[in-house]
Amino acid sequence: MAFVIDASATLPWRFEDEATPWTEALLERIERGEHVLVPAHWPLEVLNALTMAQRRNRLSGDHVREFVDDLAALPIHVEPARPPSEWQLVLNLAEKYRLTLYDAAYLGCDTAKSASTRYA
Fold first, then answer.
1. Model confidence, pTM
2. Which long-range contacts (CB under 8 A, 24 or more apart) does 13-16 make?
3. What is the pLDDT of residues 11-63, one digit of tens each?
């Protein structure tokens, strides 16, 4: 069974002061090869947070690049951007659950392909 992670579950892998047993367990599951899905905007969301952390001197540029390489090595499936024919799905999820469109995209991740997706 696949599961979906969002940026808030990903970033603590680089920021030790934000890590929890739950976020560490997610990373261990991914490293063991469990199937992980993320929407098309996830890389930009993660990279933006890393860039902002670098600007605030929380991370060096080298640490950012190292983490990006580490993420790229994980078996995380980035879904392609949704075609216009599926935009209504994301809008409907956002309205139904009162979410931002970004969060609705996580919830809608792989909806058309699989009903066996869990969310983290």
1. 0.82
2. 13/67, 13/70, 14/50, 14/59, 14/63, 14/67, 15/53, 15/58
3. 999 999 999 999 999 999 999 999 899 999 999 999 999 999 999 999 999 99
Domains (ranges, CATH) in the chain? 3-119 (3.40.50.1010)
Question: If we measure between CA atoms, which residue out of 49, 65, 54, 55 comes closest to residue 10?
Answer: 49
Query: Which tokens is 92 given?
Result: 């409907």
Q: Tell me the pLDDT band of 112, cut-offs 50, 70 and 90.
A: very low
Amino acid in position 87:
W
